[in-house]
Design brief:
The protein contains 7 helices and 4 strands; from the N terminus they run H-E-H-E-H-H-E-H-H-H-E. The chain has helices spanning about 1-10, 35-60, 75, 80-100, 120-135, 135-145, 155-165, and strands at about 15, 65-70, 105-115, 180. It has a 4-stranded parallel β-sheet, with helices on both faces. The chain is globular, with a radius of gyration of 17 Å. About 35% of the residues are buried.
Length: about 190
Amino acid sequence: MFAALRTNLGGLDALINNAGIAGPTGAVEDIDPAEWRRCIDIDLTGQFLCARRAVPMLKAAGGGSIINMSSAAGRHGYAYRTPYSSAKFGIIGFTQSLAKELGPANIRVNAILPGIIEGPRMERVISDRAAQLGLAYDAMEKTYLERVSLRRMTSPHDVAAMIAFLLSDAAVNISGQSIGVDGNVETL
């Protein structure tokens, strides 16, 4: 992918590290270690692997921006979603470390922490958690929204707007930050 970017586009100005999975839902003693590793590998190690290849191209361009997707689960913890939450906490540390390392090369590094994002993925998460706790879907969804100050889910467009802002010149001095785009998730 990075070789194709160099050949076809001549370089790179920004990296949005956005690949990830929800990982398993369950009590820590019931989580298969292979599922733990898969979640950590995709959600955290995948960001490292992409940054590793992107940084030389960003340096060659004279700077740029890396945006790592974390989660409100990376700030609050998330019972029964330990692999996911652990990976998302790791992304915050990864972001802060890279911001310090890459700042002298004029590369800004930030993390976005989405909360409850509208769509099929969140519907699966709510459904799995409801099943884990023996609740109806509607009751579990209500519980999730009661933990958000604005009492609503976040649109993917809200996250895209923050990405656009962080990539713009208006954010030229923003680096090393973990920015919630979540309606103020109070707890998970």
